[in-house]
């Protein structure tokens, strides 16, 4: 018999103070303030062992990770336990003030192989040069909470050729791309000696700084982000080769309520803005620059999809007047947006453990003659169960994470 008698429980996530995060958005949303002036980069909701959420039960606040371990059928459902044996997703709110590292996520097969190889080599899980923290893939989807900017995949061939032909410093790179392909070009710039990187990029950085200062750039221009990287620097020494990626990748603007999915092999980097992010329950990241963390170029190149990409920005598909879905081609997770007007209700049913996070408003969750109220900055964990009703006490915006039912 479970210690937990209720099917819907308040859930408390964990703030991650990564240096690239903003100081206000998440703190204001949570209503906690930020007297220490720490960066509030991510708010994690899930059962990741390194930062499990707590759920508020009649027995006090308990670790969701531990509860799933102790009561897997009750918390996950039979299907999810059999297929994943854990909560297969991690749900987050992000506030990106400074751009994140250029990164690629491996496939599930590659992650398992890399994990076993690093284990056999005796590289500890916490080692700074560890690439594979677990055996899982890390596909992810983000839905914008504001105008959000990111890098996503290589530019289509014509657009990349235009960049190579019009940026003076890249004059010698066009031939490498034409004779080889995306991989030949990227391998060349990512493997160049640092002195050559500096020689090629210094005049480019200086020119972009001047252009941004004179108002000649917008966020749609690579130079805007390059200038942002170096603004305020007294001296520009070794230039991060991640700068090449800013010119070679698609710069994508995602408006509030729009989404983009990022599968294995697609190189990407978040640039600026706030979003809701949902991913497989993994911490496997292969980095290629714009970060003080471990960069492993050979490993990155091994798992990158070297092809031009036309970014697919999803507007969402209407499930009902109140519910919008963002289809993702993975079995690990699904995400929906729920918008309710004052006093509007919807009925729902959870076939897996669901996490509902309130971006704004207040909602009452009712089931089996019981109820719980959650407001802006709060989340609830909903155990697999029969129907429940959600009623908005004011205009309310909710995002929900779940595991899709088996086909």
- The CATH superfamily name of the largest domain is Jelly Rolls
Q: How would you classify the quaternary structure?
A: single chain
| Count of β-strands | 23
The dominant shape is globular
What is the straight-line distance between the termini?
31 Å
Major sheet attributes: 9 strands, antiparallel
Binding site for Zn(2+): 103, 105, 140, 268
Domain Phosphomannose isomerase type I catalytic: 10-155
Keywords: Isomerase, Metal-binding, Zinc
Active site: 287
Molecular structure report:
InterPro entries: Man6P_Isoase-1, Mannose-6-P_Isomerase, Pmannose_isomerase-type1_CS, PMI_typeI_cat, RmlC-like_jellyroll, RmlC_Cupin_sf. With 407 residues, the protein is an alpha+beta fold. The chain folds into three domains: 8-151 and 253-285, Jelly Rolls, CATH 2.60.120; 155-250, no CATH class; 317-378 and 398-402, no CATH class. Helix content is 26%, strand content 30%. The protein is built from twelve helices and 23 strands. The chain has a nine-stranded antiparallel sheet with strand order 5-4-1-21-18-23-16-15-14. Strands 2, 3, 6, 8, 9, 10, 11 and 12 form an eight-stranded antiparallel sheet that branches. A four-stranded antiparallel sheet has the order 17-22-19-20, with no helix packed on it. A hairpin with a 2-residue loop joins strand 4 and strand 5. Helix 7 (173-179) packs across helix 8 (182-191) and helix 9 crosses helix 10. The mean pLDDT is 95.
């Amino acid at each position: 018999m479970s210690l937990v008698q209720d099917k819907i429980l308040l859930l408390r996530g964990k703030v991650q103070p990564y240096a690239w995060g903003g100081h206000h958005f998440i703190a204001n949303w949570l209503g906690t303030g930020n007297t220490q002036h720490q960066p509030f980069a991510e708010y994690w909701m899930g059962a990741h062992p390194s930062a499990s959420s707590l759920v508020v039960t009649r027995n006090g606040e308990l670790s969701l990770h531990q509860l799933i371990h102790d009561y897997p059928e009750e918390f996950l459902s039979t299907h999810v336990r059999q297929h994943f044996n854990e909560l297969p997703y991690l749900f987050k709110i992000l506030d990106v003030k400074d751009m994140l590292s250029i990164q690629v996520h491996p496939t599930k097969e590659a992650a398992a192989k890399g994990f076993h190889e690093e284990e056999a080599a005796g590289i500890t899980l916490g080692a700074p040069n560890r690439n594979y923290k677990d055996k899982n893939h890390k596909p992810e989807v983000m839905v914008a909470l504001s105008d959000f900017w990111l890098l996503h995949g290589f530019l289509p061939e014509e657009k990349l050729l235009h960049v190579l032909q019009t940026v003076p410093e890249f004059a010698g790179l066009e031939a490498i791309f034409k004779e080889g392909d995306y991989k030949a070009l990227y391998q060349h710039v990512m493997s160049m000696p640092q002195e050559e990187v500096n020689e090629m990029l210094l005049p480019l950085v200086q020119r972009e700084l001047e252009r941004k200062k004179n108002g000649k750039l917008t966020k749609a221009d690579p130079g805007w982000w390059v200038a942002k990287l170096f603004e305020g620097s007294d001296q520009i020494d070794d230039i991060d080769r991640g700068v090449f990626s800013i010119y070679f990748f698609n710069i994508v603007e995602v408006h509030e309520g729009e989404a983009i999915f990022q599968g294995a092999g697609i190189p990407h980097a978040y640039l600026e803005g706030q979003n809701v992010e949902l991913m497989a329950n993994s911490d496997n990241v292969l980095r290629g620059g714009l970060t003080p963390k471990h960069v492993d170029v050979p490993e990155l190149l091994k798992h990158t999809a070297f092809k031009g990409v036309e970014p697919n920005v999803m507007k969402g598909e209407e499930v009902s007047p109140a519910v919008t879905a963002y289809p993702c081609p993975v079995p690990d997770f699904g995400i929906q947006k729920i918008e309710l007007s004052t006093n509007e209700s919807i009925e729902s049913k959870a076939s897996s453990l669901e996490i509902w996070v309130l971006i704004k408003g207040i909602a009452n969750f009712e089931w089996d003659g019981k109820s719980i109220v959650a407001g802006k900055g709060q989340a609830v964990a909903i155990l697999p169960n029969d129907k429940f009703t959600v009623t908005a006490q004011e205009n309310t915006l909710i995002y929900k994470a779940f595991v899709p039912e088996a086909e």
